[in-house]
Amino acid sequence: MIDPYGRKITYLRVSITDRCNFRCFYCMSEQMEFLPKGEILSLEEIDRICSAFVAKGVRKLRLTGGEPLVRRDAIELFRSLGRHLGAGTLDELTLTTNGSLLARHADSLAACGVRRINVSLDTLDPGKFAAITSRGQIQPVLEGIAAAKAAGLKVKINTVALKGINEDEILTLVRWCADRGFDLTFIETMPLGEIEARRVDNYLPLSEVRARIASVFPLEGVAETTGGPARYVRVAETGQRIGFITPMTHNFCETCNRVRLTCTGTLYMCLGQDDAVDLRAPVRTSPDNGPLIAAIDAAIARKPKGHEFIIDPALGRPAVFRHMSVTGG
Ligand code: SAM
Ligand code: SF4
Question: pTM for the full model?
Fold first, then answer.
């Protein structure tokens, strides 16, 4: 799949549920309205769409959410998608999780062929953790991360940089991850979806985060890129990789290799744009994959050149009205 700007599309992210057991304040509002079950793709439908993408050249699948592991049949889906790894038609099957249910599922995920996972953790302080997530507890998350490591999964920690909230923990998190052999990626807050807090209040540019780390640990540039918004450096002393996802301050769109599917079968060609193509109707109306493939082709032909994020203090509203939990980040 090659889009109109010559970019090869090899990566599909799939939000398998819009639900979550946490309410991270930058991601969801307290009064989230979740989708009725009938609108959500079944396991078989998700598998069918993912498999069509794999047949069309996607080499990496990431399941996300909401919280992917709150969906009861999540492991079954990993198991069935794992067949593409065995067949050599898929390089990587992975997930992004808040870690709260990981202790229960880490071994099964490893058995399904998952090798690396991203776990979101914004703080190591139990009180701050409860405040950021509204209803989460840190202990099960730490246990989940330990279980993942014990199961042989490579863990990357994702931390949203939040001014006045976790900026004092940046170096602590770098050391905590280094001690456990985890890579660490910092994320800037993105203006997705209406939430109660005003995002400009917590916006912390990652240039500041990077400068703080560099003042203590000499950093080396790393040329590699995943085709996404992350840029990497290496801590010279330990070799630990630290990523910075800066959608607001840098343009990463020219190397974009991904599209995103929601749990209702809507395909977004860009995280920062509203244009989308419905893949649920072709799946539900035809047992034949022809209409689905035609819809995927039409979507890729419409992939935009770049995003339009902006946090506008004057407007005080997000640039894109979907919450992150819809497209899964
Ligand atoms: N529930 C899972 C988790 O938290 O890892 C997966 C879904 S979550 C939407 C994926 C990632 O998006 C998390 O690392 C989260 O911190 C991040 N995220 C959510 N809302 C965001 C926002 N408005 N700006 C930047 N990152 C955000
Ligand atoms: Fe849930 Fe993840 Fe959003 Fe937090 S960031 S509310 S854990 S989906």
Answer: 0.93
